[in-house]
Each structure stands twice: as C-alpha cells, then as structure tokens.
Amino acid sequence: MRFVVLVVLYLIFDFYAFQLVKVQVSDYSDTVRRSVYIVYWVFSIFTIALIPWISALDPFKQRVTRTFFIAIIAINFISKFFIVLFLFIDDFTRGIRWIIDKFSSPKEETTDLSRSQFLMKSAVVAASVPAVTMSFGIVSGAYDYRLRKKTINFPNLPKEFDGVKLVQLSDIHSGSFYNKKAVMGGVEMAMAEKPDIICFTGDLVNDQSKEVEDYVPVFEKLKAPLGVYSVMGNHDYGDYRSWSSPQAKNKDVLALHEAHKLMGWDILLNENRTIKVDGAEIGILGVENWGKGRFSKYGDLVKTMEGTGELPFSVLLSHDPSHWEAQILPDTNIDLTLSGHTHGFQFGVEIGDFRWSPSQYLYKQWADLYQQQNQYIYVNRGFGFLGYPGRIGILPEITVLTLKRS
To answer: For 35, which of 53, 206, 209, 249 is 20 to 30 Å away at the CA?
Structure first.
C-alpha cells in the first residue's frame, strides 16, 4: 500500500514536471511532440519500476546492477525536482499577476499570463546541471583517489618517532564497489607512500560481513612495519538491516571482526596497543563507534584508555568526528584523533584552502585537520562511497600524516 501511495505521489510530481516538456516542444510538429512525450513517460515508468526491481536483486551477485539502478533513480528525481521548483516559481508569479489583473481597473489591458520563457530556460539548465554532474561524478569521481598530506608537530612526540608516516583510510564501504581494479589502484597508491603505520577508521561494509569477502585479497596488501590498526564504524554492526535473530546479527559482527584479522589488520574493540621504537613507546587506541544523536554508541572511552596513562603520546581511532568534542576533548589528553564517517557528503567544492559541503551543516569537523589547543583531529573524506555511486568535488581520500617532534 505504501508503494502505491508513493507511486501516485511521484506520478503527480512527474506530471507537473511534464509541463516543461510540453512548453519546450510546443513549436515542433505533431510527430516530434508525440515521440518526445512517449520517451518521457516510458522513462518515467521505467524509473518507477526500478524501485521494486532493486529490492528483488541480490545485493552481492547483482551489485553493479543495483548500484546503477539507484543512480538512475537519484539522477531522474533530482533533475525533475529542479524542474518542478522553477515551474512552481513561474506558476506562483503568474498567480500573483492574475490576482492583480482581476482587481485592477477594467480599462487596463489584461497582462499576458503565458509562461515565462526565462524561467522555462532556467528550468532546463537547472535540470541538466545535476544530471550531467552526477553522471560525471559516477564516471570520474568514484575512484579518483587523492593523497592528502599533512605534517603535524607535537612537542611530546618521542624523538624516536620523529618523522613517522601514518596512512589513514576510512569508510571503505566494500558493498558499494563495482570496480575491483580501481580499488586495487587505491591500495597501491597508499603503499607507494611507504607508511610506517596504517590506520583504518571504520565502515568496512554497508550492512553485513560478506560484502568484504571479495576484497580481502585486495586490502590484505596493506602492510606497515609498525602495524595496521582498525576500528568499527556505524555501518559495521548490521544496525541498518533486518536480521532473523539477535544471534544472527551478532554472528555476522564476529565474522566481520574475523575479516579484519584475515587481512592482517589489528582490530581494536575499545582497547589499545603500545608501539615501541628503540625503547620509546606511543599508544594506538581504538574505540568502537560512538556518535552524537541517533548514531550507535558502542564506544567505551574509559575502557579504551586503560593502561595508557603513562604513555607520552597517543593516537585514537574513533569513526565518528562528533565524538571528539563530545567526549575526547573534555575528558582526555589524547594528542591525535583520526575519524571519518562524513564522506564530505560526497559532494562539495574544494579550491585551495576553501572548502564547502553540505556536510559542514551537520558536523563541525567534517574534513581535514582541526586543532583545539594541543589536541588534533583529522577527518578523512572516505575511500569508498555509499548510496550515490560517485563523488562530486569531494573526492575519495588516502590520508598521509607525518608526525614531527617540535
């Protein structure tokens, strides 16, 4: 019943958008107009039919098909949203003019209430821009990995660790990938930096552990002399799908833990490790997911920090950057926190030091490096993607941090 209601609402929405098509082809022959109308409605009905079709597809065996069907629906809807927006503005202004004409002097000549050609052309442009950019974001942006390099100075970093290179990956979302060769290229880029430490800050999958099975041979190639460390993200607990029982859900989470180990990653579940170089020590801490608001709160920061009080320097892996100001800053002296989660919304603008994304209205720390007194957080833009199978402006990231003693 819910699907029927949604279809009816969408058809009303679609019929309204169709008015632009009628205006644009009004000067053409009957044959051309009829052909355009048929193409428009066939594509619209096809888009509606994709919704139940997607639900019936196997998310693993037919991953690529599902991904691109979702993209078609998104592009179609967003483009028509802009059409409807401009049509509404045009109808609203025409309505105001009609009311003015109705109550003006009868001697005055009636205003022409035909549709504004300027607004109609603007609607065409507004609909074309998201269609073109979103298509380009899929073709070009999804696997266009970018190295983001930063050097951070710390007065308390042991001299034995001066110049240590740390590579961070986050938000792999292996269930969304459709190009294993491109993913392998990203892994090779990370390894070409010759990292001393590699950290993964959560969201290895979208919903369940078997998504990563095909990519274990890819990500097991991530190696570092001081270790590869990882944590869980909000998508790694299976909270966004239905399970036959709590036991089945827990079994899948344990299977995902095992996948980390198969890849040679040391998964930290509210725990920590000590790294030693020439007798000096620093701590690598990993807290389970903790996010403000509706996001899961499996993290236990007190437990995570047990036994680290004497360490001169520590790095914390915490998936959600909202954790930083909520608990990490007020309650700890952790030097560097590594997070991800935001994806930079997979959409935005970055030119030099200027950054903008809708993500910034949800997260104060949403991408790159932030500092509060002597404490830092780096928020990775994500290695993979979720939902929309591409990126526009905010490209997938491999973070390279060089830790220096100041």
So the answer is: 53
